Amino acid sequence: MENSFITDSRQLVEEARNRKSNLVITGHNSKKFYGNPDISPHMELNTIKNDGIIDYDPSELVVRVRSGTSIVNLEKELFSRNQFLNFEPPRFKTKTKPGAEDRIGTVGGMIASGLSGPGRFFYGGCRESVLGLTIMDGTGKLLRFGGSVIKNVAGYDISRLNVGALGCLGLITEAFLRTYPQPVSETTVELAASRKELSEIVKFCYKEQLPISGSFWTNLETEELSKKERLYIRLSGKEALTSLAIKKISEKFTNYTVMGNDTTRFWNSIRDQNLKFFTDKISGSNILWRISVPLATDIDLVFGEDMIFEWMGALRWIKSKESPLVVREKVAQAGGHATIYHASQSAKEKYGSFSQLGYASKRVHLNLKKVFDPENIFNKGRLYHFM
């Protein structure tokens, strides 16, 4: 028997089709800033009533959960079984009424945005943790893909196609997610490192096969980070492995520090983007870029003075007034892509939040959109202006 959320959602989908209206899917609205602005006028479909864990078997490392479930509530249950979401999705607080519980993101928004935190470098991203999804397509049908086990897929892996699609392919109603055991040992090392030294450090870490589960470098000096040009490396795994990694680092570098026990708060501030660098309002022609490049890319690919590097340089946050066309051209030449993360609405409308697609990729996107949302009602224009 269908629950009321499915029934109500199907009615909204039908109404949107009849009106030929844009239907915007929301949860806690914590990621409203991400992607292109919503097209108005529009109808809204909210998922927060569709919450709760349906099934969780810690021994199988799989949880089945509804899309409106708070990320924090899910993580509390996983933590009670000594498990966690290994890709560490960011949790963005949104303002609520005084005395009400903070809203910090839902499972559906987590998957739709596809954003991952520090653990992405070591464990894999959100996409790798999605084993299956149930979605409602643009005709109101419920479609189930994948399940509780990992299988080889012939053709498109529809579950993972929805990761990062910002709801453009349908309404996510349920998800099967892979969980991971908490690491036995975890230690963070702080190194003094200039940007030009990062390439050699990355090579050293790979050569020595250090168990790195997170990295963070910045040239900022703020209230949270009192020193400039510092690299923080989180080591996770068995105690013998982390101890050996610290020994190798101590033999290679002299200017290093093993941080104290209160590193969880430090890494959470990075994961949840609570640093002033992220929370400061962007104005004028300034843009906060989220730049992804291959790991071996020249570390000097920069466009501004204020920078944060994660994933050993594969993810770069840069504030810049450089032309978006120039930034994207240079990043594309390096084999990566550049996303306008925070910027004025006019900048996102003019340049689009995401790197433009080539002809072949654009055709694939349009064909997929026609299959799952033939009348283009779901989150129109949020991912790309043409869909």
Query: Helix/strand/pairing class, anyone?
Result: alpha+beta
What's the main sheet like?
A: 8 strands, antiparallel
- Say how many strands there are: 17
Q: Percentage of helical residues?
A: 25-40%
Strand content: 15-25%
What does this entry look like structurally?
The structure is a single chain. The chain is α+β, with helices and mostly antiparallel strands and 387 residues long. Among the domains are: 4-181, Uridine Diphospho-n-acetylenolpyruvylglucosamine Reductase, domain 3 (2-Layer Sandwich), CATH 3.30.465; 185-271, 2-Layer Sandwich (Alpha-Beta Plaits). It has 13 helices and 17 strands. The chain has helices at 4-19, 71-80, 107-113, 120-123, 126-129, 158-161, 198-207, 239-252, 263-271, 276-279, 324-333, 345-351, 359-372; strands spanning 22-26, 42-46, 53-57, 62-66, 83-84, 130-136, 142-146, 171-178, 180-181, 185-192, 212-218, 230-237, 256-258, 287-292, 306-310, 315-320, 337-342. The strands form four sheets. The protein has an eight-stranded antiparallel beta sheet, sandwiched between helices. The radius of gyration is 21 Å and the shape is globular. The mean pLDDT is 91.
What's this entry about, in short?
The chain is an alpha+beta fold. The chain contains 13 helices and 17 strands.
Could you list some keywords that capture this structure?
single chain; 387 residues; alpha+beta; Alpha-Beta Plaits; 29% helix; 24% strand
Topology:
Blueprint: H1 4-19, E1 22-26, E2 42-46, E3 53-57, E4 62-66, H2 71-80, E5 83-84, H3 107-113, H4 120-123, H5 126-129, E6 130-136, E7 142-146, H6 158-161, E8 171-178, E9 180-181, E10 185-192, H7 198-207, E11 212-218, E12 230-237, H8 239-252, E13 256-258, H9 263-271, H10 276-279, E14 287-292, E15 306-310, E16 315-320, H11 324-333, E17 337-342, H12 345-351, H13 359-372
Parallel strand pairs: 1-2
Antiparallel strand pairs: 3-4, 4-8, 5-9, 6-7, 6-8, 10-12, 10-13, 11-12, 11-15, 14-16, 14-17, 15-16
